[in-house]
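Chapter summary example: a protein plus guanosine-5'-monophosphate.
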Amino acid sequence: MPRDADCIFCRIVSAEVSASVVYEDENCLAFLDVAPLAEGHLLLVPRDHFSDLTSLPPPLCGSVMSLLPRLGSAVMTVAKASGFNVLVNNGKAAGQAVPHVHIHVIPRVASDGLGYRWNASKYAPGRAEVLAEAYQRALRTPS
Ligand code: 5GP
Ligand code: ZN
């Protein structure tokens, strides 16, 4: 099982470091974020250490992501939320502080003041077609 002795989430998985665990199975663990953006903010992690989503084997990614409907329902009930955000900060540039794949599930209620800049822009004429082709080429090449 891939593990990094210096990784805080590996240490939580192995119970060397305590956490408020809310769910576990053979592949995954979910626990309360120690510094929540809202009460009930959860982190969902694979037990195995993979630093980011691009290195996560697709079947394991499937197992982890398949828990989101259940966790989301629990967040709605327990945190009395009327919605939730599912967030992955992938890579340092995206704000990832802990290099062990994790998914934030953040309870939301209307007017809770949480938010982020969503400065939508527009493509110059022709640019979307160029990008779409580049993506299609990249996605034809197995990683
Ligand atoms: P990131 O910025 O990497 O997406 O988020 C890392 C998250 O892990 C942060 O929200 C932070 O509060 C949480 N976190 C960091 N260390 C610990 C810890 O020791 N225990 C728990 N429960 N959460 C942690
Ligand atoms: Zn780890």
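Key point: The chain has a mean pLDDT of 96.
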